[in-house]
Write a structure and sequence with these properties.
The structure holds two protein chains of two kinds.
Chain A: E1 37-38, E2 53-54, H1 62-66, E3 82-84, E4 95-97
Chain B: E1 7-12, E2 15-21, H1 27-45, H2 53-59, E3 65-66, H3 69-84, H4 94-100, E4 132-134, E5 138-140, H5 153-168, E6 173-177, E7 180-184, E8 191-195, E9 205-209, E10 213-218, E11 223-226, E12 229-232, E13 235-236, E14 241-242, E15 247-254, H6 257-270, H7 274-280, E16 285-289, E17 294-297, E18 304-305
Parallel strand pairs in B: 17-18
Antiparallel strand pairs in B: 1-2, 2-6, 3-5, 4-5, 6-7, 7-10, 8-9, 10-15, 11-12, 13-14, 15-16, 16-17
Helix pairs in contact in B: 1-5, 5-6, 6-7
Classes of the chains: A little secondary structure, B alpha+beta.
């Protein structure tokens, strides 16, 4: 198994130097970090003091916690009822079911 | 008297996202929830981001890579789609996409007229069965393959958003991610849906949907040229080439948006076999042939029945 030492993650630890100043917190580098710390740089150390940003990361992402078996049901069919001639009192702004326009982004 | 504004549109995942709520007071929270989900999906699952977990998996084929559990969930959904379609909706077409020219965000694609012979790097039709998942947070893909969740990603994001709405909102809502839509908290009152072949065009059909998901797959929008040949983004895993354009657009329904999108994508790939296949899987769908003639399957209202 490959365990990237610099695995990209939304809550990442980046250490690029030797001196870290953290206000009242101990840093334990065992993988995912459970707390927050902020690095402060003294003007005298500008350019030599590394900047470390630590943010909390839950064991599971918040989105995964909210998924359900039904939300990912692979069975085909079973869709809702499609009808025409919507009642006059329905909102006039329909949800689009059209392929997406090419655009920049992911 | 017009009702208070109850919908919003914004950009995410390289596409337009539409959110509508039954209770206008829910709109702000719904927008926030949807944005949060889409940010997570983009950061973890995008093949166009070199820092995504998916890109790290693709950088180490054949190796077990530790990833965000969200990617494990997304791959599981893609595997379910492959299983349901016998591999026609295939999650390992990343390299083939790159070889064919779809190697960057679509807004950046240009005509690639290098004239060189293009050889696709197609995995076996059943290669997806070799993908290994560990719910604790690892993914391994076969060597010489590349993961691409484009076939199910937007629909899956719509389902995730709807699940989030069901947890945090009390009233009904609908979300459309690039035209793949899902209803949350169905309440017996249908939602209006505009079906169109092209974004921003006048609707080809204005229908209502009371629950579940609806998705549209099309060969008409994401097109480019490479070596002088027209390409579109719906690949046939059996040939490695863009699917023959028997149907230029298919709109399908399902219990979930992923189910709907799986059916619509498979229909494009299946071509002439699509109507029978859709009917056998109890899918309600609208198919637009290459010449523009419209056919329907299942309980799609009006228009000429194809099966």
């Amino acid at each position: 198994m490959r365990n990237h030492s610099q695995t990209r993650d939304r809550y990442r630890l980046g250490v690029t130097g030797t001196t870290i100043a953290a206000a009242g917190a101990a840093i334990v580098a065992t993988g995912w970090l459970a707390g927050c710390a902020a690095a402060e740089q003294n003007d005298d150390e500008a350019g030599t003091t590394p900047e470390t940003t630590l943010t909390p990361r839950p064991v599971e992402t918040r989105v995964v916690e909210q998924t359900s078996d039904e939300a990912t049901d692979p069975a085909l069919g079973g869709g809702g009822t499609v009808a025409v001639d919507p009642p006059a009192d329905l909102p006039a702004d329909p949800a689009p079911a059209a392929p997406p326009a090419p655009s920049t982004g992911s | 008297m017009s009702p208070a504004s109850s919908h919003t549109t914004f950009l995410a995942l390289g596409t337009s996202v539409f959110v509508a709520v039954r209770d206008p007071d829910d709109l702000r929270e719904a927008r926030r929830l949807a944005g949060r989900v889409l940010t997570d999906v983009d950061e973890v699952c995008s093949r166009f981001r070199p820092d995504s977990d998916l890109s790290r998996v693709n950088a180490s084929p054949g190796e077990q890579v530790r990833v965000d559990p969200l990617l494990v969930a997304g791959v599981r959904v893609a595997l379910d789609a492959a299983r349901a379609t016998g591999g026609l909706v295939h999650p390992l077409l990343g390299r083939a996409m790159v070889v064919l020219g779809y190697d960057r965000t679509f807004g950046s694609l240009v005509e690639l007229g290098d004239g060189s012979t293009v050889e696709t790097a197609m995995p076996a039709l059943d290669a997806w069965q070799q993908i290994e998942l560990d719910p604790a947070g690892t993914v391994r893909i076969p060597e010489r393959t590349s993961l691409d969740l484009g076939a199910t990603g937007k629909a899956w994001a719509a389902d995730l958003i709807a699940a989030t709405f069901e947890k945090h909102l009390d009233a009904s809502a609908v979300v459309s991610v690039g035209g793949d839509l899902r209803i949350a908290h169905p309440d017996g009152t249908p939602w209006s849906v505009a079906v169109a072949e092209r974004p921003g065009a006048a609707p080809d059909a204005l229908v209502t949907l009371d629950r579940g998901g609806m998705a549209t797959s099309s060969t008409q929008v994401r097109r480019w040229k490479r070596a002088g040949a027209q390409r579109h983004h719906v690949l046939d895993p059996r040939t490695g080439e863009p699917a023959a354009e028997v149907w230029r657009t298919v709109t399908a329904t399902g219990a979930t948006c992923v189910a709907a999108n799986t059916a619509s994508t498979a229909a494009i790939v299946l071509g002439e076999d699509a109507p029978a296949w859709l009917a056998a899987h109890d899918v309600t769908a609208r198919l637009v042939a290459a010449d523009g003639e419209v056919f329907t399957v299942g309980d799609w209202p009006v228009e000429r029945s194809a099966a």
